[in-house]
Amino acid sequence: MSLDLAALAARLSAEPGVLGADIAHGELTVLVEKAGYLPLFQLLRDDLELQFSTFVDLTGVDYPERAQRFDVVVHLLSMKTNARIRVKLAVGEDEAVPSLVDLYPTANWFEREAFDMYGLLFEGHPDLRRLLTDYGFVGYPLRKDFP
User: Fold this and answer.
1) Which of 67, 99, 133, 137 has its CB 3.0 to 4.6 Å from that of 122, i.e. a possible disulfide?
2) How many Cβ atoms are within 10 Å of 8's Cβ, its own excluded?
3) Chain centroid, CA 115 distance in Å
4) Cα–Cα distance for residue pair 86/75, rounded to 1 Å
5) What is the pTM of this model?
6) CA atoms of 53 and 114, how far apart (whole Å)
7) 54-70: per-residue pLDDT in tens?
8) Rounded to 10 degrees, what is the CA torsion of 14, 60, 114, 41?
9) What is the predicted pLDDT for the residue at 3?
10) Are 36 and 44 in contact (CB under 8 A)?
11) Which letter does DSSP use for residue 34 in this model?
């Protein structure tokens, strides 16, 4: 079964908290605000037509010139439709993002890595601590202002 990305983009754009959707290079990117973040992932995972059940990746992107400095970027895969989706959430430097660990247990270490490398905070994460750097390490190596 293939998924009509244009129809999905229109459907998701109507969801509360979704700011927009765009198709590029055969993949759908959805921009979401914080209030719609968890409900969107719940829908993507649990909707029987979509079944985006495979959590592929989560990372951050640093835009120091913006008021909402970071994008949290999540990639999902639907094994049912063989479709991929990218979800982006813009957040401020000290703003916590809802954790996806309860919906996607594999998000655990990805969120820890984003915390360790960018300083992104994940509210409700069961074990948010450094993953790749030493516990006494100061700073966040993937921020553009890191020396």
Assistant:
1) 99
2) 21
3) 13
4) 5
5) 0.94
6) 21
7) 999 999 999 999 999 99
8) 10
9) 81
10) no
11) H
